[in-house]
Amino acid sequence: MNDTICAIATSQGVGAIAIIRVSGEESIKIVNKIFKGKNLEKVESHTINYGHIVDNNEVIDEVLVSVMKSPKTFTTEDVVEINTHGGIASTNKTLELLLENGCRLAEPGEFTKRAFLNGRIDLLEAEAVMDMINAKTEKQRKMAVNQIDGKTSNLINELRNDMVQIISNINVNIDYPEYDDVDIITNDILVPKIKNLKDKIKAILKESENGKIIKEGIKTSIIGRPNVGKSSLLNALLQEEKAIVTNIAGTTRDIVEGQITINGILLNMIDTAGIRKTEDMIEAIGVEKSLKIMEEADLVLFMLNNNEEISDDVKELLKKINTKKYLVLINKKDLEKKIKEEDLNIDKKKIVELSIINNEGIEELKEKIIEMFNINELETKDPTYLSNSRSISILKRCLKRIEDIEKSLIDNMPIDIIELDIKNIWEELGKINGTNYEEELLDEMFSRFCLGK
Questions:
Q1: Which of 50, 76, 233, 299 has the fewest CB atoms within 10 Å, counting from its CB?
Q2: β-pairing, 326-331 with 299-305?
Q3: What is the side-by-side strand order in the sheet with 265-271?
Q4: Which fold has domain 138-213+386-446?
Q5: What's the helix, strand, coil split of the chain in %, to 5?
Q6: Could you tell me which residues are beta bridge partners of residue 68?
Q7: Alpha-carbon distance 62 to 85, whole Å?
Q8: What are the contacts of 432-440 at 24+ separation with CB within 8 A?
């Protein structure tokens, strides 16, 4: 943390502008050594200064240098940003000069890590910085903005504050039992307070399911026997020839992936190999992959041929998807109907009839997906959710512990033991926003950031 670090903050390659970011106690002094123009050590904070980067009086590039002095910066340290022309050679040469004059190359995410360690942002806000960079849809952007602004952190802070109040009341009862003006905390009084905490956590977790959908999209697998039109459906949804389509059974032997957006939500589409018994070793591996992807998917699109009777193996597969979110797509509705819907033994609302070759039924399919995942409802909500698996898993653990406390209160567990359990949950919640953290967690998390962030 005492080093002065630097990194290229913009994408590598040719462009109009490249930005090199420098942060640390010596940042202004080091940049001043290679800058010809105003004395940067004497300029006002938050100013942009014109000049040149030089090496032994040789001009390397014409630049604009932004000087931002501690503590009102992203890292809370002195920060300098050098705006160079976007050529690879001039940018790399400027970075090289900074390293020669006392800077250290920043590790991935180290600027954001310093912002967190210096108290500028919490862990949820730090994760949201990367979410903002990776946002592909408007909903993802809005959710990241709310997390960066601290709205999501407030949800966790409110929970922890409620727990502090309970812990404080119990402690007063234990330490000062002689005080007459203090409410005596009994198990009966604690039960509604604990239930209130449980309900709040459940509400956050329920909303966070939406957050995960917004952030990660809906993993959608297209499953079915060979030649039912799986690859044709993928191509129709993507509106491009992504997958090879032939009338030869077994053409798709490996997964083919693509993405579409429905009302701001990503559908991560996976076209799989046709499921059937086969002696072809390569095709058999593809079938095995298809079954695994079907298990992992958020949504299964199970395709059938309108002009084929339902076989016993298809009936078995339909039983397997019954525990998941799924739609049954009956393709080739323009052909003679041989499917008996009573053989399907499923909710008729989950059936969509298609004729992909005639572009019929695609919009109805999209509407069904919108309805199934309440995507229209997400459109009207302010997206203030937990959205990463780390935070959600911690909150689920806390919910389980709260439920255990509820049972303990009914069994008349002593108040002082209950107080310890509540304090443990309070500390666990602190791992979500980084009030409590482990160094290994920070190293792993920030290593996923880009170099200049």
A1: 50
A2: parallel
A3: 256-262, 265-271, 218-224, 299-305, 326-331, 351-353
A4: Four Helix Bundle (Hemerythrin (Met), subunit A) (1.20.120)
A5: 50, 20, 35
A6: 79
A7: 7
A8: 432/123, 432/124, 432/156, 432/386, 432/390, 432/391, 432/394, 432/395, 433/122, 433/123, 433/124, 433/153, 433/156, 433/157, 434/116, 434/122, 434/123, 434/124, 434/126, 435/122, 435/160, 437/123
Q: How far is CA 293 from the centre of its chain?
A: 20
Is the omega angle on the peptide bond into residue 71 within 30 degrees of 0, that is, cis? Answer: yes
Structure tokens given for 218: 């809906």
Helix (H) or strand (E) holding 363: helix 362-372
On whether the CB atoms of residues 391 and 211 are closer than 8 A, the answer is no
E-only strand ranges, 76-130:
79-86, 104-105
Cα gap 7→287, rounded to integer Å: 46
Specify the pairing of strand 58-68 against strand 47-55: antiparallel
288 membership: H or E segment, kind and range? helix 281-296
- Phi, psi of 41, rounded to the nearest 5 degrees: -75, -10
Note the maximum CA span of the chain. 86
Q: Mean pLDDT over residues 118-147, rounded?
A: 84
Residue type, 28: I
CB distance 21 to 7 below 8 Å: yes
pLDDT value for 273: 64
Reduced to 3 states (helix: H, G, I; strand: E, B; else coil), residue 108 is coil
What does the domain layout of the chain look like in residue ranges? 5-119, 138-213+386-446, 216-378
DSSP letters for 314-361? HHHHHHHGGGS-EEEEEE-TTSPP---GGGT-S-GGGEEE-BGGGTBS
Dihedral of CA atoms 409, 413, 414, 418 in degrees, nearest 10, equals: -60
User: Among 187-191, 352-356, 394-398, 440-444, whose mean pLDDT is lowest?
Assistant: 440-444
Are 65 and 7 spatial neighbours (Cβ–Cβ below 8 Å)? no
pLDDT tens digits, 246-296: 444 444 444 677 888 888 788 888 877 665 555 555 555 566 676 777 787
d(CA 229, CA 449): 40
Q: How many CB atoms lie within 10 A of CB 207?
A: 15
Q: Which fold has domain 216-378?
A: Rossmann fold (3.40.50)
d(CA 310, CA 312): 7
Question: In 161-278, where do the E strands start and end?
Answer: 218-224, 256-262, 265-271
Q: How far is CA 338 from the centre of its chain?
A: 44
Burial class (CB in 10 A: 0-12, 13-18, 19+), 154: middle
> Taking the domain 5-119, which CATH number applies?
3.30.1360.120
Distance of CA 220 to the CA centre of its chain: 17
